[in-house]
Design goal:
With about 130 residues, the protein is an all-alpha fold. It has helices at about 1-80, 85-130.
């Protein structure tokens, strides 16, 4: 009877150890899944930072171009005062208008990109907060 009780005790201990080992394996798998998810989020966050930096550079460049256009407009205004050739003035103004239209479209695209970047950053932050 003592031997049977001892064997039963050993069997119960062995079963408990097997359960603990399974739990440990499951926990390790889950931790690895979480690590992989966090790594993915960090890569996405870095991509967003890079996109935001690119957007800032593009906005700076557009502002430089706008300043250049302002300079051209001032020069054009001076030419209008001095120039006698109406045809030349009209051609130059049309070139500037076309250039300004192009810049306005580029500026709108940048605004859209920046809004999308902000939305993505907010989503990543929500996911991080959830984790």
């Amino acid at each position: 009877n003592e031997i049977k009780a001892f064997i039963d005790k050993l069997i119960k201990e062995e079963q408990e150890l097997v359960k603990q080992e399974r739990s440990t394996k499951h926990i390790i798998e889950r931790v690895n899944e979480i690590k992989a998810f966090i790594d993915k989020l960090m890569k996405e966050e870095q991509e967003l930072v890079n996109q935001e930096n690119n957007t800032k550079k593009i906005v700076e460049r557009v502002n430089e171009i706008k300043a250049f256009i302002d300079k051209l407009i001032k020069e054009e205004q001076e030419l209008v005062k001095q120039e006698r050739s109406t045809k030349h003035i009209i051609e130059r103004v049309n070139e500037i208008k076309a250039f300004i239209d192009k810049l306005m479209k580029e500026e709108q695209e940048l605004v859209n990109q920046e809004n999308n970047t902000k939305k993505i950053v907010e989503r990543v932050n929500e996911i991080k907060a959830f984790i």
